[in-house]
Every structure is written in structure tokens, then in C-alpha cells.
Design a protein that fits this description.
homodimer, alpha/beta, seven-stranded mixed beta sheet, DNA-binding
DNA sequence: AGGTGTGAAGGGTTTCACAGCC
DNA sequence: GGCTGTGAAACCCTTCACACCT
């Protein structure tokens, strides 16, 4: 099997593919069975050329003058994005942000399953929040192994992040969504995406300043 | 005054500049008064060439064989990033995520001031959470005006996001940090940065799958 | 006519590599 | 020698534009 498919795709493309999937899911198939690239593109906020190019590696082709079959494109996208195995995710760190993530992901996202959370504070261990059981920090490796966790959302304090990340990857986690405002140094073999809230807010504030200046002229 | 400075800088560069600033703040100046580009770059997770290039528009120059003066570089960065006016921010939507953001930003970030929160649910209005007063949705325009809000973090349900965004921008907000999983269509004159948690998690899961496949060979 | 898929062009970002300096 | 600043190259991503299809 050649399998040139999912290899060497940038995170940007994959990110947009997930957006296309989400937009398609919001279409009632009894009402609209087919969609044009410019229509779907507009809903997501990209150009139609970009959408068509993004779809190339997925392998599904639309038909000229008819567009894409909504259901078939959805199926192709899911096959492409989800791959063969389960995507079990652990939330690590049950502070304000960790709790919000547990609520957010358990209610909204059917593509990745939250199997539990890890927390150092003994007062929280054993409790169930948002349908998620909370395990102790020393159970980390065992939980990853037993629940076949491949993905983790890191919402621990900055000082602890590198340590916990090391343990997660060593235990077999292959993907990290890191909310701690530090650069994680990890041995290859794991993918890290950083969500840096302070950084994002500061970027917005910086541009807001510029726009304000413009307005004053 | 020419003011070629902050114009036409990409969000990527500005984002990294905020990271450099943060990393510099963690250095004790009595212990280390000067730093090399490769050292600072390593702490942030970028190449030294990139760091040096990013600093070009800031205008501060290091000296060969000595590196950068930590305090002076910090001052230059702050002058460059913060601009002239205040950066007052409103959190809009006090659900799980909104509350987490209030806690996160009020404790961690001295560069942007959180002046309050907006929420539709009458049960929450008037209460104070994390030191933030919660205002009603119908007070939005008044609060933006009175508190000179230029930045907002949007954590409202998907369905409400476009509407609320329109109102915010119309009231004078120049920058939006949007957590709602929709593409916002806004009239020019405002900057939008999207933080799409589900998308980020799915990207991580997708790559995690690939890394798992590799491991099986 | 009005779609799609895609080679080729264009634009932006990162890295290379080296002159200049201490 | 070993650093910085920066032109030039390399690389990646997006857009253009057009052949092809129905």
C-alpha cells in the first residue's frame, strides 16, 4: 500500500480540513445534498481556490457543474482526518482552564474522546467533573497505558509543564495540546501544538492599538 | 515623525516578539545583564537567525561579542508592542471558558487590563468573579465606551458570536480574540484572531495518529 | 455557461552565509 | 574568535488562470 496520503501535510491544511468537516456537518443533507467550493469556502472564510487545493490530498473529487456531494465529502474527510485508531485524550491539570477544557471538549467534540483528567491536588482526585474521572499525578503512566491515550491537553502551571510533558511522551502519548506558556523541548516522535492565550491576547492588543491610531487620522 | 515602525508587521513576528519579552522578564537582571541571540532564541524555541531578524523592526541593536542588554531590549520591546494608549479588555461570555479566561488574564498578564465581563444570563449580572464585575448584554456599548475598551475576548456560543462581534466593533472595539468556532465576517478596521480549541485538538489528534503509525513499523 | 483540478506564478517567511565589529 | 545585522537563497503557502468536464 503506497500511503502517500496523510504524510507531509502541513498543520495549516489539516486545520482547514477540520473546519470544512465542521461546516459540512452543519448542513442539513435533506435540504442541500451538494455544495460548490465557493459556497463552502465562504462559510469557513477561505478562498475557493484554497479549498479546492486543500481537498486534493483527500482524494475526493467533485463533479463540474454539480459541486461536491455533501455526505460523500464528509465521509472522505473523516476517513482522512481520523485515521485507523481511536483518539483518546487526557486533560492534564484541573485548574480553571483544565475544567473549562473538560467541559468544552466533552460536550462539543465527538472526534476525540476525553477519557479522564490528571491533577496533582489530592483534594480533587477521585472526583468526577463533567463526566470525567480525575486521577492522581502518580497514576499518569498507568492511565495512559490502560486507556490507550495518544493525545493530551496540557493545562498545568508553567513550572510543571516540561516535566509532565516528558512523562506523557515517555508513556506513549503522541500529540500534545500545550496551554502552558513555555516552549516544550521534546524528543522527536510527538507532535506539539501550542495555544498561548497571553500571547494571542497581546497580539490582538498590539493590532488594536494600530487600528486605533489609524482611526485618529 | 515617520512611523514606519509598527506598520505592516505580520502577526507571526508580533507573536514572537511577545514571547521574547516574556522570556526576558524571567531573567534576573542582577544575575545576567546581557544575553546572546542564540540563548534567548533557545528559550523561546526559535532559531537565532529568526530572532535577530524579528528584532530588526524594533530598532534596538545588540553589540557584537556582548549580545543584548536585557533591560534595554525589554524596554524597546515594550515600547514597540504596547504603543501609546491603554489596552483595556472585556471578556464577553461568562461560561466555563469565559470564567477561565477571566482568571487567567487577570492573574497573569500585566500588559492588558481586564476591565470587566459581559454576560446574557441575568443570574450572573452584577456579580464579581475573579475581581471582574459582570455586566448585562444590553450594557455592552456603554461599558465599551466608558471603560475605553479596545480589545475583547469573545467566549459566547457559536450562534451569538457574529451578532456580538458586530456590536463590539460598532461600539469601537478594534481587536477581537475569538473563541467561538465560526468565521466572523467583520467590516475592516478591526483585527480578529481566532482560537479554535476543537480545531487545535483535532489537528493534534491527526498528527498523533500519524506518529503512532510510524511507531508501528 | 459555470463548475472542478492543477501547473505556474506570486508573495511571504525562514534559513543561509558572510561582512563588519568588538 | 565569536558575536550581530542583513542581502540573498530556499522554502512554503496562496492565488491565478486555464484546460477540461457536464
Amino acid at each position: 500500500m503506497p500511503d502517500i496520503t496523510t504524510r507531509q501535510l502541513s498543520d495549516k491544511v489539516i486545520g482547514r480540513l477540520t473546519l470544512y468537516r465542521r461546516a459540512l456537518r452543519e448542513i442539513d443533507p435533506t435540504e442541500q445534498g451538494t455544495i460548490f467550493s465557493h459556497d463552502l469556502a465562504k462559510r469557513v472564510g477561505v478562498s475557493s481556490a484554497q479549498l479546492r487545493r486543500d481537498l486534493m490530498p483527500v482524494g475526493y473529487e467533485g463533479s463540474p457543474n454539480r459541486g461536491y456531494d455533501v455526505q460523500k465529502l464528509l465521509a472522505s474527510l473523516s476517513g482522512f482526518l481520523d485515521g485507523a485508531r481511536d483518539r483518546n485524550c487526557l486533560v492534564v491539570g484541573v485548574g480553571n482552564l483544565g475544567k473549562a477544557l473538560m467541559a468544552y471538549f466533552t460536550t462539543r467534540n465527538p472526534n476525540v474522546r476525553i477519557v479522564g483528567a490528571i491533577e496533582a491536588d489530592p483534594k480533587l482526585i477521585g472526583r468526577i467533573i463533567n463526566g470525567c474521572r480525575i486521577y492522581g499525578l502518580d497514576e499518569l503512566e498507568a492511565v495512559v497505558l490502560q486507556a490507550e491515550v495518544t493525545v493530551a491537553a496540557l493545562a498545568v502551571p508553567r513550572e510543571a509543564a516540561q516535566d509532565v510533558a516528558n512523562r506523557l511522551v515517555h508513556a506513549g502519548v503522541k500529540g500534545l495540546l500545550n496551554f502552558a506558556p513555555v516552549h516544550l523541548d521534546l524528543p522527536g516522535g510527538a507532535y506539539v501544538e501550542n495555544v498561548d492565550l497571553t500571547r494571542s491576547l497581546e497580539v490582538v492588543a498590539c493590532f488594536a492599538n494600530q487600528y486605533s491610531e489609524e482611526g485618529r487620522r
